[in-house]
């Protein structure tokens, strides 16, 4: 098996995603809309498996976490208090000739040894404008009457919904420090130059935790999350050699952070941020308390001390993790003297766990038996099972390989007499005969390894 050249890999992944129904360009029949992508059936299944894994690993397995699902639209004062209304901006330049816009910090830098110029448009050679700050929040109006008081924004992060619910969490759950609020939800950023498929988009999904700690204990919690997030990435199938920790220096961190580690992944277009771990101090709670006039202090039952907790934030971009997994698992090899492409996804994460085939679709007795096996496996609680009789057996194998299905089960004429089937392993292509009665136990063991 081999990996394609990095320069070709992203193009092949985009093609596979559309061909097999993982991801489609947004609004495609109208020419598309830059920075938007629509998830199809298998993309939705892959995302749901990742979300379930995240929920279980970081929330379900612990007693100090609480789930949240805050509203996307919030009072505009939230974004003033958080600093987003004034500070959530990127440096923008525009070509005076073709009007294309660029992020100034992503332009090629001038280099005396080459002809590269950072003040000229890379598309048409026109002169670029002076830099201006562009706020990336999507502004909207709430209600029938438009005015300054009706302004709201599509949230650029899920975090603020948890900060503004901190007091509600204290009153409702009476938690003791440290504890966390966890949320998965949509966020929106009006990116100047969305690019690289799912990596930088205008609408995306975040998986975030705001973990509230005593300020004297923040370093321990920070280190715990650093180690736990690395374990989770390995569990879903991202090898440690592809993950790199970057300690973000002073002057480059977000305005709320006192320490940040960016965990970067080797994408085909370079080493880029996959997720971040930030120490947000008490920046958010203190600002919301000041602007709202509502106390967000925590009372320690033992010491009777009152203070505003500090926050550790592991923040994951779900779409980036999907892209990283596609890049990491896309594999090409040869099987039966034919080139083959497959996604070597972990069985725990694969969108379809098992596909069931009748050897021939025009033989009613085989189709009936295959549907019987399919129905029994559907109720065996082993994940998504797919019935596939489209095309010949070879085409079905290739299709399921590209979807990433770990096991394919074929019902042939021997199955009718012997009550057994052929089970094919995705990665090796090896096949073995197994009794139909033993399939649920066999598959459950294989799918949780």
Class per helix and strand makeup: alpha+beta
CATH class of the largest domain: Alpha Beta
Tell me the number of helical segments per DSSP (H or I, 4 or more residues long).
Answer: 13
**Beta-strand proportion:** 25-35%
* CATH topology (fold) name of the largest domain: BirA Bifunctional Protein, domain 2
State the domain count: 2
Number of strands: 23
Helical proportion, percent range: 25-40%
Biggest sheet, spatial arrangement of strands: 3-9-10-16-13-12-11
Rounded to an integer in angstroms, the radius of gyration calculated over CA atoms is 26 Å
CATH architecture identity of the largest domain:
2-Layer Sandwich
Distance between the termini: 22 Å
Query: CATH homologous superfamily name of the largest domain?
Result: Bira Bifunctional Protein, Domain 2
Which descriptor suits the 3D outline?
globular
Spans of 5+ residues with little confidence (pLDDT < 50)?
A: 109-117
User: What do the pLDDT scores average to?
Assistant: 92
Polypeptide structure, described:
The protein is of the alpha+beta class. It folds into two domains: 6-82 and 155-327, 2-Layer Sandwich (BirA Bifunctional Protein, domain 2); 352-447, Rossmann fold (3-Layer(aba) Sandwich). It is 31% helix and 28% strand. The strands form seven sheets. A seven-stranded mixed β-sheet has the order 3-9-10-16-13-12-11. The chain has a five-stranded mixed β-sheet with strand order 20-19-21-22-23, sandwiched between helices. It has a three-stranded antiparallel β-sheet with strand order 5-4-6. A hairpin with a 5-residue loop joins strand 22 and strand 23 (431-435). Helix 3 (76-82) crosses helix 8 (283-292). The longest helix has 20 residues, at 41-60. The radius of gyration is 26 Å and the shape is globular. The two termini are 22 Å apart.
